[in-house]
Amino acid sequence: MLIASYVVGYDQFERVGHLGVDKVFPADMDRSHYELCSSGESGSRRHDLLIFFPNASIPVEVICLPNLPELVVETMNTGTQLPVVDFSNGRVIRVSGLAAQRLQCA
């Protein structure tokens, strides 16, 4: 697992527009999937985005974007397809909190 740093991109209306990473997505993104994981009590809940790349080699077979800001999670939970962009190569995966959510991740 690769724990990656990320940036949150906003539009001119201060809405979340994308998440950005750099040099983390593998060349083969076939069959990729993701989970929005939550843990902790309300008020101190933590949300991590896990992106799985079954055809990639270690350590990028699983990429973790840890401790997402609440505004990002709220945006994802509206059903909005939020792009995660790898700036180094332009590869994109679109994620939504409604599609795959799991509680009690580590």
Separation, N- and C-terminal Cα atoms: 13 Å
Mean pLDDT: 89
Which class of secondary structure composition applies to the elements? mainly beta
Helicity range of the residues?
A: under 10%
Instruction: Give the tally of structural domains.
Output: 1
Give the strand tally. 9
SSE pattern: EEEEEEHEEE
Main sheet summary? 5 strands, mixed
Please mark out the parts with pLDDT under 50 across 5 or more consecutive residues, or reply none. Answer: none
- Count of alpha/pi helices: 1
Strand content: 35-45%
In spatial order, strands of the major sheet run 1-6-5-4-9
Shape: globular
Radius of gyration: 13 Å
Could you characterize what this model shows?
The chain has 106 residues and is mostly beta strands. It has one domain. The chain has one helix at 70-77, and strands at residues 2-3, 7-10, 16-21, 33-39, 46-52, 62-65, 82-86, 92-95, 101-103. The strands form 2 sheets. A 5-stranded mixed sheet has the order 1-6-5-4-9, with no helix packed on it. A 4-stranded mixed sheet has the order 2-3-7-8, covered by helices on one side.
